[in-house]
């Protein structure tokens, strides 16, 4: 749909903060792209905007899921990179937690596309020069609106 170019980590953080400020209960975000493209960086900034101490946010590469408590919403942060089989998704209670209360961020969602909720905002990260291109692919009206909101704010901030 639309893409945002983030020339440096600060730009990824600014996008994450805007996303955090627009979050509503039940929102789901799929974060896709190579290792080290900024997915955790964006989640940390979004969580900070929701009132979570950034020090509390760590990559769930080994824990598979972290939960943070923001001032208005809780945040479930998954990383599916080390999950090999769908059975392991069941073991961590993925289908019960994803899209439930609070906001859900799923790193490496592209590994298990058939297990994702029906509606979500997909963010695809790719390296571009020194920076990152983040493509926004919304599924469902709520997320189309959210993507428009993100782009509009981006425009205002230059
Ligand atoms: N727009 C950007 N331009 C350049 N570097 C960036 C940008 N955004 C984030 N980074 C840097 O990329 C590095 C890796 O970020 P991060 O850990 O968030 O990646 P990740 O996508 O979560 O990786 P993984 O798949 O291993 O979980 C960090 O050092 C971060 O500062
Ligand atoms: Mg990560």
What does this structure look like?
The chain is α/β, with parallel strands linked by helices. The chain has a single domain, classed as 3-Layer(aba) Sandwich (Rossmann fold), CATH 3.40.50.300. The chain is 33% helix and 28% strand. It is built from five helices and seven strands; from the N terminus they run βαβαββααβββα. A seven-stranded mixed sheet has the order 1-7-6-2-5-4-3. A hairpin with a 2-residue loop joins strand 6 and strand 7. The longest helix has 17 residues. The protein starts with a strand and ends with a helix. Bound molecules: adenosine-5'-triphosphate (ATP) and magnesium ion. The site of adenosine-5'-triphosphate has 18 residues, from helix 1, helix 2 and strand 7.
Summarize the structure.
It contains five helices and seven strands.
Largest sheet: 7 strands, mixed
Uncertain runs are: none
Instruction: Determine the number of helices (DSSP H or I, runs of at least 4 residues).
Output: 5
Approximately what portion of the residues adopt beta-strand conformation? 25-35%
Number of DSSP E strands: 7
Overall radius of gyration: 14 Å
Provide the CATH superfamily: P-loop containing nucleotide triphosphate hydrolases
Using the 3D structure, state the CATH architecture: 3-Layer(aba) Sandwich
Order of helices and strands: EHEHEEHHEEEH
Distance between the first and last residues' Cα: 20 Å
Strand order of the largest sheet: 1-7-6-2-5-4-3
Helix- and strand-based class? alpha/beta
As for the number of domains, it is 1
The overall average pLDDT, rounded, is 94
CATH fold node name: Rossmann fold
Work out the helicity level: 25-40%
Shape: globular
What small molecules does this complex bind? Answer: adenosine-5'-triphosphate, magnesium ion
């Amino acid at each position: 749909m639309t893409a945002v170019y983030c020339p440096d980590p600060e730009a990824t953080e600014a996008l994450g903060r805007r996303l955090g400020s627009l979050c509503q209960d039940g929102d789901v975000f799929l974060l896709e792209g190579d290792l080290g493209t900024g997915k955790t960086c964006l989640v940390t900034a979004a969580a900070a905007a929701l009132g979570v101490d950034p020090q509390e946010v760590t990559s769930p590469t080994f824990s598979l899921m972290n939960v943070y408590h923001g001032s208005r919403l809780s945040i479930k942060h998954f990383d599916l990179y080390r999950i090999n089989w769908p059975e392991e998704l069941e073991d961590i209670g993925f289908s019960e937690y994803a899209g439930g209360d609070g906001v859900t961020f799923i790193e490496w969602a592209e590994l298990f596309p058939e297990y994702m909720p029906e509606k979500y905002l997909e963010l695809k990260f790719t390296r571009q020069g020194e920076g990152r291109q983040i493509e926004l692919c919304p599924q469902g009206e709520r997320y189309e609106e959210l993507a428009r909101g993100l782009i509009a704010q981006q425009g205002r901030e230059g």
